[in-house]
Design goal:
Blueprint: H1 2-11, H2 13-35, H3 43-63, H4 76-100, H5 110-135, E1 144-149, H6 153-162, E2 169-175, E3 185-186, E4 189-193, H7 198-204, E5 209-212, H8 219-231, E6 236-238, H9 242-246, H10 274-280, E7 284-288, H11 293-304, E8 309-314, H12 317-327, E9 336-340, H13 346-356, E10 360-363, H14 370-374, H15 377-397, E11 402-406, H16 417-431, E12 438-443, E13 446-447, H17 454-463, E14 468-470, E15 476-477, E16 479-480, H18 482-495, E17 501-504, E18 510-511, H19 512-522, E19 532-534, E20 553-556, E21 562-566, H20 572-585, H21 592-601, H22 621-631
Parallel strand pairs: 1-2, 1-5, 2-4, 5-6, 7-8, 7-10, 8-9, 10-11, 11-12, 12-17, 13-16, 14-19
Antiparallel strand pairs: 3-4, 15-18, 17-21, 20-21
């Protein structure tokens, strides 16, 4: 019956008009009773006034959009509109009765009593309708019990949403660090105390879920909230951005899971990319490794800046196929061209460069998986070092003006061949003599969600209901989002001078174990349900990565979040000789000669079994190299 009445109130405007007309008529009659001690003198005058008053008031009510039936959502604004409508109607009614119809002797006190009663009734039925609607609740046992972190404007918005009849939630309390809020009640929901007491509060007032209602929280604060939820073993979610709260667009249905970006331990880096627009617009840009995680994001962002042409180069035909499907959805997609090519294929690369004449090259084509490259040392050197060297020479010959190399934090004091080859690439960029082509390298940490990185692996294990594998409980990594990484590359492209190695301020490293635990909580599970298994550090891995060498001095740039490294540089002629010896070492069987030559170039490079290598590793190494040089 109540639901039928609510539907009628919502949809039948005529019913609403008739109902309000009845209230107006009752107000006039009741005020007449009050004026004349509950008698009805001058009934003809009263009967004349009733239709006039009803018509005037309904027109005023319609003017302020009060003929709708959504009374269960009535609030302060509706009360204000009712008062305005009553005041307008009273003024018009008084003018009609006193001047329009002549001297009828209409009691003046009615002009005061009737508006007060009418306003009270119109406001009262709306508030009663809301109270009645909110009292008709679903069974509490079928609704989720939630505890809120935060007691500010976002929490108040959430609580208002939760109080609505169709809500699937019931709020049992809030936690907030503000002492002035502790002990008060917000929408009849108590604020228990500081956030640190979450576990104690949940032990006495169990909740199915914790809602983090602090949209303005920094990443560091979000990490604290997540740690508190983890300690309390509570499932948690958070509200959207602060602007959605301000614009009133948030509802309980907009609550989202805490994203991994929230757990970086710092605020996302926002860089000024207007200068990128000026540099890329109407230029031909080539991206190598375009089908990879960084390469594909580079392609997406570069297209937004309106290049004359974007050349997407990768040796993976399948990867380029899917990249093409994705880029077709973006603006300027017709400017993209896709080339299947291996950067180590000198003739093919030279042909691509000659046909397209790129002015800007972003080099993201490199082998990056540490364990895989440890068992494929020669291929890592061939692609990451010799491929880079050949591409640089061909690019300069083709008239390219800007070359940006993607490096890694694993290039600092490397313990694996991948990081060592990245360091060699940095040395090539920093030592190469200045010419017509400006060369810059950028160094950053792990990318959240990139292909084959730790996060997608853990997510896949969760989906497959497998234990999560972490190499070591103390292993830490610097993390950044893909958009941050590419923004750094693009910003570095504009501010770097020839030979620069640029590094992003990535905050503090994040413990992989903490990320694994947070992933488990985000999925609504406990560590008892999803065990974490430690597998031990893999070959070439270390507990913590670094961003700078000890002999590198970080220097500021025009961008506050990017630093320039200043360290000792190699003489280009000496480095060329070492690179040639490295190339010749590939002709010798086994990885040891290659590692030996890499260590000559990068003395900081350490690896398992290094003690076996000395100045003359393998009795035949020197003779092998001499024969190779002779044949060359």
């Amino acid at each position: 019956m109540i639901r039928f009445a609510q539907t009628l109130l919502r949809r039948n405007t005529w019913f609403i008009a008739i109902f309000q007309a009845a209230l107006i008529a009752f107000s006039l009659v009741f005020s007449w009773f009050l004026r004349f001690d509950f008698t009805l003198p001058d009934r003809r005058l009263l009967l004349l006034a009733v239709p006039i008053l009803i018509l005037v008031r309904l027109l005023a009510i319609a003017r302020f959009n009060l003929l709708h039936g959504w009374w269960r959502y009535a609030g302060i604004s509706d009360v204000v509109d009712v008062i305005k409508a009553v005041a307008l109607g009273s003024a018009v009614f008084a003018v009609i009765m006193r001047y329009g119809l002549g001297q009828l002797g209409f009691p003046r006190s009615i002009y005061i009593l009737e508006p007060l009663i009418t306003a009270g009734l119109l406001c009262g039925v709306r508030l009663f309708s809301r109270v009645l609607a909110e009292s008709v609740r679903k069974d509490y046992s079928a609704r989720k019990r939630v505890m809120l972190i935060g007691a500010g404007s976002a929490a108040q918005t959430i609580l208002r949403e939760i109080r609505r009849p169709n809500s699937a939630y019931v709020a049992i309390g809030c936690l907030d660090d503000d002492p002035s809020k502790q002990g008060i009640r917000i929408h009849d929901v108590p604020v228990f105390g500081p956030i640190e007491k979450l576990a104690d509060v949940l032990s006495s007032c169990p909740a199915d879920e914790v809602l983090i209602a602090v949209p303005s929280a920094t990443a560091q604060q979000m990490r604290r909230f997540v740690e508190v939820c983890n300690q309390a073993k509570a499932v948690f979610r958070t509200v959207p951005a602060l602007k959605d709260i301000i614009e009133g667009e948030i509802t309980v249905n907009h609550l989202r899971e805490v994203s991994l970006e929230d757990l970086l331990g710092r605020d996302p880096v926002c860089l000024d990319l207007q200068s990128v627009q000026r540099e890329i617009e109407d230029q031909t840009v080539l991206v190598t490794g375009a089908a990879g995680s960084i390469g594909s994001e580079l392609c997406r962002q570069v297209l937004n800046y309106g290049p004359q042409r974007l050349i997407c180069l990768d040796q993976s035909e399948t990867g380029l196929f899917f990249l093409r499907l994705e880029l077709q959805k973006l603006k300027n997609s017709t400017q993209a061209k896709f080339c299947v090519a291996d950067i180590c294929d000198r003739e093919r690369v030279a042909k691509v460069l000659a046909e397209n004449n790129p002015r800007i090259i972003f080099h993201a084509a490199a082998y990056k998986h540490v364990p895989m490259m440890e068992s494929n040392v020669q291929e890592a050197v061939k692609n990451n070092v010799l491929g880079l060297l050949g591409l640089l020479n061909l690019s300069e010959e083709a008239g390219c003006e800007n070359f940006v190399l993607i490096s890694s934090d694993k290039a600092v004091n490397p313990t694996n061949i991948m990081g060592a080859t990245k360091r060699v690439g940095e040395l090539i960029i920093s030592s190469r003599p200045a010419g017509k082509m400006r060369c810059v390298s950028v160094r950053f940490g792990n990318v959240l969600g990139s292909n084959g990185s730790v996060i997608p692996v853990l997510q896949q294990q969760l989906q497959n209901h497998q234990p999560l594998t972490v190499t070591h409980p103390e292993v830490k990594r610097f993390f950044m989002t893909i958009r941050e990484a590419v923004s750094l590359v693009l910003q570095g492209f504009t501010i770097g001078v020839h030979g620069d190695i640029l590094v992003l301020d990535m905050g503090e490293p994040v413990r992989i174990l903490s990320l694994a635990r947070s992933l488990i909580r985000l999925c609504g599970k406990s560590e008892e349900e999803v065990p974490i298994r430690f597998t031990g550090l893999r070959e070439g891995e270390k507990l913590e990565e670094e961003l700078f060498y000890g002999n590198e001095q970080p220097l500021p740039t025009s961008c506050a979040k990017i630093q320039r490294t200043q360290g000792p540089r190699r003489h280009w002629t000496d480095l060329q000789q070492q690179l040639e010896a490295l190339r010749l070492s590939l002709t010798v069987d086994g990885a040891a000669p290659v590692r030996y030559k890499i260590k000559e170039i990068v003395p900081e490079y350490t690896f398992q079994g290094e003690w076996k290598i000395h100045k003359n590793p393998h009795a035949n190494l020197q003779s092998h190299l001499e024969r190779a040089i002779g044949q060359d």
